[in-house]
Amino acid sequence: MVGSLSILLPLSLSSALLSPDQSEFGSTPHCPSLKIIEQRKSNDAEVESLREEYHQRVATLERKVYALTKERDTLRREQNKKSDAAALLKEKDEIINQVMAEGEELSKKQAAQEGQIRKLRAQIREFEEDKKGLITKLQDGKTLDNELEVVEGMKLDRGYISPYFITNQNNQKCELENPLIIIHEKKISSINDVVKVLELVLQL
């Protein structure tokens, strides 16, 4: 009896799951279990379809993201090139402005130098005119060589007024080196006329 119970128990459970018209080895289309299985298969197919659609959409989005990223990188490189070009142009403009400023400064200096050159040329012309007062002295030499000594200075037509001007008693000449000369428009009759000038000379 124990063995028969163990055999009948699964059979009874199987019979309970089946309808009264279903045998052990047969089934009808109206079986609830088959409907559940078919529904699950249908759900699995839908899930698989959705999964495939999802993968396709993800792949499409990945391609779009890749294309957009590539386009962004290209635009960024172009923008960097434009930025570099703009920076280079700005640097060139600054260099041009500096060169132009230096050119203007040099032009001002050149104009000032030309003015100084004109003044120097005028002084040279005056000096050439004053060369008429050049004093040359020729003396017999004791050697076989000829020497030329040129002395630039001022010639006084009337000579010195006082013998106290004589510095060389043998030749009766007044020779001064780097003297301070006072030129006055009138005759100096008193020392008081040149006291202030002499005081300034003493301060030098």
UniProtKB/TrEMBL annotation:
SUPFAM superfamilies: GroEL apical domain-like (SSF52029). Residues 51-78, 110-137 form a coiled coil. Pfam families: TMF_DNA_bd. InterPro entries: GroEL-like_apical_dom_sf (IPR027409), TMF_DNA-bd (IPR022092). Residues 1-16 form the signal peptide. The keyword ATP-binding does not apply. It comes from the Eukaryota. The keyword Coiled coil applies. Keywords: Coiled coil, Signal, Stress response. This is Heat shock protein 60. It comes from Prunus dulcis.
